[in-house]
Amino acid sequence: MTQYLITPEPEVILPIIGMDQLFPVRRVFCVGRNYAEHAREMGDDPSRDLPFFFCKDRTCVQWINPTQENSLVYPEATGKFEYEVELVVALTSGGRNLTIEEADAAVFGYSLGLDMTRRDLQSQAKQKGRPWEAGKSFEASAPMTSIVPRSGAALLNRGRIELSVNGDIKQSSDLSHLTWDIAEVIVKLSELFELHPGDLIMTGTPENVGPVIVGDRICASLEGVAELELVVV
């Protein structure tokens, strides 16, 4: 029997809508600035940019339970805690240097997630050319809904994605505005990393990211996929 010096961390899992099986999360990849207007608001030129990637630790994932009130703890060491609503793609196959067809076949389903960001820490890191982990990869920084298995043969290429704070719509766009679509993102990612079953990809956020404070209620939706609601505490 294997003995460990310390107790291993439990698996990070997401429920799957309509199935008894659970989805074990392996890694969480994030795509930066994959909507043109968000790239512009962050000071970039989307016409020249290939997709770029960063990671969140899988322990950042916080499942949003639709049957209860969900809370999101305002993290330490920041004065600018910001939301970014995103389509999340769940993979059940992988590989290196995938073709578009292989990338398409790798997608099992979708979730709706938030890439919560300590924007002041991220901005400081960018100014000094340092890594983003302190601004992006911290506890509960990736709230996500249960996974919805894909429906039909085609990958999602349209659908309204929105986020509101205290009832005021802040982000509103459509998946058709993604600079790089789902399959293209997976292809580019597979050129840099070997992808595996259990990997999640957060595909980028629309424009109008912004801060929240304690007491704010965040609601988000992705047409035909999921809704989520939580309160900052």
Automatic annotation (TrEMBL):
Pfam families cross-referenced by the UniProt entry: FAA_hydrolase (PF01557)
Molecular functions (GO terms): acetylpyruvate hydrolase activity; metal ion binding
Ranges for domain Fumarylacetoacetase-like C-terminal: 28-232
Keywords on record: Metal-binding
InterPro entries in UniProt: Fumarylacetoacetase-like_C, Fumarylacetoacetase_C_sf
Protein name (database record): 2-keto-4-pentenoate hydratase/2-oxohepta-3-ene-1,7-dioic acid hydratase (Catechol pathway)
Organism annotation: Marinomonas fungiae
Taxonomic lineage of the native organism: Bacteria, Pseudomonadati, Pseudomonadota, Gammaproteobacteria, Oceanospirillales
